[in-house]
Design goal:
The complex is a heterodimer of chains A (about 375) and B (about 90). Chain A is α+β, with helices and mostly antiparallel strands. Chain A contains seven helices and 24 strands. The chains are: A alpha+beta (about 375), B mainly alpha (about 90). At the A-B interface, α3, β14, β15, β16 and β17 of A face α1, α2, β1, α3 and α4 of B. Bound molecules: FE2/S2 (inorganic) cluster and fe (ii) ion. Fe (ii) ion (FE2) binds next to α6 of chain A.
């Protein structure tokens, strides 16, 4: 076997018009690390850490701590017995045991290894194995992040403490509490590969309709005329997609993405058969990096216009009330405290609720919100 | 590509409105959205390029929502909600 220099063997190495040109296409493109890498001290990771990020669903915080991985950091989330939510570094500051196996206390969580107790802000409350007079208490902290609950989602702020913004609400168009349905999805790919999808209305014509049969409504199979516009002085984009439904009606849709990783999506089940004006969005979505090669979408379904959407959307939204804990690359396949195994393949782990009748129940299938 | 360009500029701190202050706005404000769906009655017209007509319709709706972009939510709702209906009436007059 001879190892060739591709440029010599294939002088037209980037001629994509040549038949059977796979070899000649040469190297895979390199990663665009500036916008895809999300660990601490990376440009994109640092940027995202300045914003509140949803890290899990409130309903996932139960009897046991929940292992999560966000932007490459292994964390544990829990609700202590006084009702406060903690988001802590997963590995104990003492000897590194996983707080996923900790005991939730009235105040914070106690590590299973030597019983150290940490408050939700990382303060060490108790070090039972240490000699009296130990100075460890005041000299150490467990890494912790501020948490805030909204719409049944747990948000964490993982940026510099002195730059923490107030938690901002997100427009719910007056939707009552019971009309908001938190859910989460999990994706075995970089966050940007999924987030790009929100500004790609053409995929819906094919992926959700023509290639697979109508996953949502037949309206999605109609080819739209599309334009994109920058919004908010450069902090977002809308796409404007207009489709002809029949010889009388057209469907005009605007979806909106906002930096760094938020998106508002219109109805998923449009039939396009009745006039309506300015029906607000149904899906408020985030695409949160788990690490550089995995992402999660803790999001909220909002029935924004009950008058026109309830009949169609409610049963489907209700069926989608399936939370998925975030499988981590370090724990995939390992038994969990609940006795089940986190999927090693990256498929969502349903915690509750029927999912089989929804279009996005198929593992690695389409993401709600098109 | 457009999104990636915006993201890169946000990461590099080149866009003042792409900071937490710019995105979240003042404390009393909620992060708003321009996302929505409208169904218009717009009969196919003989001799009119329908794709062009739809593009034009999309632009007119975009102008409506973009004009109200910076308004607080309640005002935005008040300004925007009646306008697609007006646009509908306008289409019939044309
Ligand atoms: S490792 Fe956690 S208390 Fe020792
Ligand atoms: Fe989609």
């Amino acid at each position: 076997m001879t190892v060739h220099d591709i440029s010599e063997v294939c002088p037209r190495s980037y001629d994509i018009k040549a038949p059977y040109s796979g070899y000649c296409l040469g190297k895979l493109p390199s990663e665009d690390a500036e916008i895809t890498h999300v660990g601490p001290d990376t440009p994109c990771g640092e940027y995202m850490r300045h914003f509140w990020q949803p890290v899990c669903l409130s309903e996932e915080l139960g009897q046991y701590p929940l292992a999560i991985r966000i932007m490459g950091e292994d964390l544990v989330a829990f609700r202590d017995k006084s009702g406060r939510v903690g988001v802590l570094r997963r590995h104990c500051t003492h000897r590194g045991a996983s707080l996923e196996y900790g005991l939730i206390s009235k105040h914070g969580i106690r590590c299973c290894y030597h019983g150290w107790q940490f408050d939700v802000d990382g303060t060490i409350l108790d070090t039972p194995g240490e000699p009296s007079g130990s100075r460890i208490h005041p000299s150490l902290k467990q890494g912790a992040y501020p948490a805030h609950e909204h719409w049944g989602l747990v948000f964490a702020y993982m940026g510099p403490p002195e730059e923490k913004p107030d938690f901002s609400g997100f427009e719910d168009y007056g939707t009552p509490e019971e009309g908001i349905i938190p859910y989460s999805t999990w994706h075995p790919c970089n966050w940007l590969q999924c987030h790009d999808n929100f500004m790609d209305p053409m995929h819906a014509v094919f992926l959700h309709s023509r290639m697979t049969g109508d996953q949502l409504t037949p309206a999605w199979g109609k080819m739209p005329v599309v334009e994109w516009y920058e919004t908010g002085g450069g902090n977002g984009i809308i796409y404007v997609a207009t489709r002809r439904m029949d010889d009388q009606h057209v469907w005009n849709r605007i979806n909106h993405v906002i930096l760094p990783n938020y998106c508002e999506v219109g109805t998923a089940f449009e039939e396009g058969d009745k006039q309506k004006y300015f029906q607000r969005n149904t899906w408020n979505r985030w695409l949160v990096p788990v690490d550089d090669t995995h992402s999660a979408g803790p999001s909220a379904g909002v029935i924004s216009d009950p008058a026109s959407t309830t009949a169609r959307e409610t049963p489907r939204l209700a069926a989608a009330t399936v939370s998925t804990s975030v499988p981590t690359s370090t724990t995939a396949g390992a038994p969990t405290r609940n006795g089940s195994a986190l999927p090693a393949t990256g498929t969502p782990k349903p915690v509750s609720g029927p999912l089989l009748s929804t279009p996005w129940s198929i593992p690695a299938g389409p993401i709600p919100g098109s | 590509m457009m999104w990636r360009r915006l993201l890169r500029r946000g990461i590099r701190g080149e866009t003042p409105s792409a900071t937490p202050d710019g995105v979240y706005g003042p404390p009393e404000r909620k992060v708003g959205s321009l996302a929505h769906d409208c169904i218009f009655k717009m009969p196919l017209r003989h001799g009119v390029d329908d794709n062009e007509a739809m593009r034009d319709m999309g632009r007119r709706v975009t102008e409506i929502v973009m004009a109200a972009e910076d308004l607080p939510h309640d005002e935005q709702q008040a300004v925007v909600i009646p306008r697609p209906e007006e646009l509908q009436r306008q289409i019939f007059r044309e």
